[in-house]
Amino acid sequence: MSPNIKEQLAACDAIFSNCDLDYQLLTETDIDQSFFADYGNTRIVNSFLFNFSKLQDKIGAKLLKKILYELKEIDSLAIPMLDVLNLLEKLEIIDDATAWDELREVRNAIAHDYPLNAAGRIQTIQLALKSYPTLKSIYARLKARIPAT
């Protein structure tokens, strides 16, 4: 495995470690309008959403194609993302090709549509919390395909 991929995996592992802590705290808490009165809660939410977005970006932009290329599943990094997703589905790294698109939509909602009203914020947070296990599963399956070196 190339040093670049090892570096990216180590970075993802560290981010997942932090994200797991925030995820656990948030899933053990009732998130309602009063939740945001405590700045500490807002910091946890911001940390989780930032790390979720960072992971989705890193895995999608830096790892999927590179790992498939090194595994000799593809012969060019210029392959369209739709073909990558279909191959990931065939290899059972993702359950279906739409799973990654859904994660991208969540990431885009966080980055571009994060509402200021509490109800909208709660909806975005709940969507990210619901999607996090999928992101984590895809990453674990991807890592499992990498030969030990």
Structure, explained:
The chain is elongated and about 50 Å long. The model has no long low-confidence stretch (mean pLDDT 91). By secondary structure, the protein is an all-alpha fold. Helix 1 runs antiparallel to helix 2 (39-70) and helix 4 (98-112) packs across helix 5. The N and C termini lie close together (7 Å). The protein has five helices and no strands. The protein has one domain: Up-down Bundle (Four Helix Bundle (Hemerythrin (Met), subunit A)).
Summarize it.
The chain is an all-alpha fold and 149 residues long.
The structural domain count equals 1
Give me the secondary-structure category. Answer: mainly alpha
Q: What percentage of amino acids are in beta strands?
A: under 5%
Distance between the termini: 7 Å
> Low-confidence parts lasting 5 or more residues at pLDDT below 50?
none
Helix content: over 70%
The averaged pLDDT comes out at 91
Order of helices and strands: HHHHH
| Strand elements, count | 0
Q: Just name the CATH architecture.
A: Up-down Bundle
Q: How many H/I helices?
A: 5
Main sheet overview: none
CATH topology, by name, is Four Helix Bundle (Hemerythrin (Met), subunit A)
Shape: elongated
